[in-house]
Amino acid sequence: MNARFTDLLRAEWTKFRTVRAWMIALCAAAVVFVVLSFLSAFESHYAEPSVPTGPGGEAVSDTYMFVHQALAGDGTLTARVTTLAGAYAAAPSNTGPSAFGAFAKGGPSAQLRPGLAPWAKAGIIIEPDTRQGTAYAAVMVTGSHGVQMQYDYTHDSQGLGGSVGPSSPRWLRITRAGDVITGFDSADGRHWAEIGIARVPGLPRTVQIGLFVTSPEDFAAGGGSGNGTPSVATASFDQISAHGDLPRRSWIPDAITGSGYYPYQPPARAWQERSPTAFTISGSGDIAPLVGDILSPQWAGASIVNGTIVALLFVIVLATVFATAEYRRGLIRSTFTASPRRGRVLAAKAVVAGSLAFVAAAIATAIAEVVTRHVLAANGSYLFPQSWPDLVRAIIGTGLFLGLAAALAVALGMMLRRSALAIAAGIVLLVLPGIIGSESGNWLMRFTPTAAFAIQATLPRSSLVTSAYTPPNGYFPVSSWAGLAVLAAYTAVALAAALCVLRRRDA
């Protein structure tokens, strides 16, 4: 007698709900998910500095050394950059701004070694004022990315390539015509090329123009430690000329910084006026979008990940026992007699276990998202804005993650028939690769089922920031849905293998 698939689903659901221990374990998994997420967030007492926001409302880094003067109306600023050199702290910084502050103030971590950060920047800039997060347009030389024109933190255009040095200086020019800023560069000071045009709405009549230098933390220089290495850049400018209505015609030095980040202050002054048209300037920080790991060791999703790992262990055990219980009790023969099409039995068990895990995980994730963000905010942690699509993806995606994991565990249980062996296999597949590969985000996090953790990633990225985009910092080596697709592929293969095994052997 072949039962309909809906009858099999009803039968498997009845089996599950009538075993009180299984229902309790499922509810416990959801509760532990929420509680562990809460505790993980509660233990974070990292007080964030105030975070500036750019013209688009995005969180930004905006720290640099600025030598400037006022320009009333339209005008032009031209300068030649002859050298750009840099240095790093002797060892990667400790997590948080305090270590960067020690570096800035000449503390123990101010031991320097030569090296130029890829996104070290030195150039000329126009902005309405010197507040952090203000709109701007700038033309700059960089450590490894040639000449760039950047504006409002997220926009950039490529200019001349190559590095800057005494034998290969770069001339930079920026012009203002109302709200329109145009950037130019030249290799010889005679032949100029336009890099880009930026429209900066709302520029006041009087703006600030000048020279700037900054250099960000570099995670590559940290040797894979997961922490950024503070850096400083020093640039030499000459042939500086400003044209337009310049009310003061004198240069003013300013260290643009906030409460949490400090420009590096070398033993000598951070700027030196060699002549009225030549300066040497040192600076540290960045003018760029803010990404998660630069700001804090704690991100809202980290608490959710911690809860997910423990809930995943619950799901592996529960789904495996659900699959193997009939083998242990000798009832599987009766099930296959009532439904000879063993593939349908396997599918019914996988659907029931997966659906229950999905519902429990989605509900737990929704609650944990609200709780952890509230707790982290109360502890003083900065939280990146989370859009509704990202929130829905994290909730539904985590449900799908644990649902697919439950189906995979059912397949392992039906193949191996022994709970202990199947549970061990599930942990090896679904948990262990994430533990081994999380620090470097290597191939284990790309090609094993733990790639599905990427569905929980919500932190911003930027090509203008060299950063440690690794799992401990809230970043994963695959995209969100691609990671979930990897787990889905493993689940499909496991179910197909289980079906082959079921068809070839006796119950």
Quick structural gist:
With 507 residues, this protein is of the alpha+beta class. The chain contains 12 helices and 15 strands.
Q: Distance between termini?
A: 17 Å
Counted by DSSP, the helix tally is: 12
Specify the structural class.
alpha+beta
Low-confidence sequence ranges: 92-109, 260-268
Describe this structure in words.
- With 507 residues, this protein is of the alpha+beta class.
- The protein folds into two domains: 5-44 and 296-504, no CATH class; 60-289, Jelly Rolls.
- The protein contains twelve helices and 15 strands.
- It has helices at residues 5-18, 20-42, 97-104, 292-295, 300-329, 332-338, 342-378, 388-416, 419-430, 432-437, 444-447, 480-504; strands spanning 60-89, 112-114, 121-127, 137-142, 147-151, 155-158, 170-177, 180-186, 193-199, 206-214, 231-245, 252-256, 271-275, 278-283, 286-289.
- The protein has a 15-stranded antiparallel β-sheet that branches.
- α5 packs parallel to α8 (388-416) and α7 runs antiparallel to α12.
- It is elongated and about 95 Å long.
